[in-house]
Design brief:
This protein is an alpha+beta fold. It is built from two helices and seven strands.
């Protein structure tokens, strides 16, 4: 019997789509992880106090937080993390804040879940999609009998 290799060109479009989708996930999430890692290495942790807490059941909450830097200056910023309305920090609550040493106006809430765990999960999903799109079809040669 003669074995003929199967050239499955119909799988190129779905594999190309999965590759494109995986890259669309990998690039922004990888950039976020890279930027946060650089920020983390050039920053300092302190405690901040919630100065204004808005309650909204529609879009969530982004409270204002005030903190003192190492020189004693007080800075205030609005968080980029959108809190769920049920778990929002209340007025006067202390929360961990991380600020850039050279530019204290660049501050974020120091939350490993939002800044590392969630992006890592998306990064792994994107990496899996790229791996499956490129290497999954190369795992074995498929042949057909005439």
């Amino acid at each position: 019997m003669v074995r003929m290799p199967i050239h499955n060109t119909s799988a190129l479009l779905p594999r190309g789509f999965i590759l494109l989708l995986g890259l669309c996930i990998l690039l922004p999430v990888g950039t976020k992880l890279w930027r946060y890692t650089r920020f983390y290495l050039n920053s300092e942790e302190t405690r901040g106090v919630v100065t204004t807490a808005f309650k909204s059941r529609i879009a969530g909450t982004r409270p204002f937080v005030a903190f003192k830097d190492s020189t004693g200056h007080v800075h205030e910023f609005q968080t980029k993390i959108l809190f769920h309305w049920a778990f929002t920090p209340k007025l006067g609550d202390e929360i961990p804040v991380r600020y850039h040493l050279k530019d204290p106006s660049r501050a974020v809430i120091d939350s490993p879940f939002f800044n590392l765990v969630m992006p890592l999960c998306f990064f792994l999903v994107g990496l899996l999609m790229v791996y499956l799109a490129i290497f999954h079809a190369m795992t074995g040669k498929r042949t057909a009998e005439p």
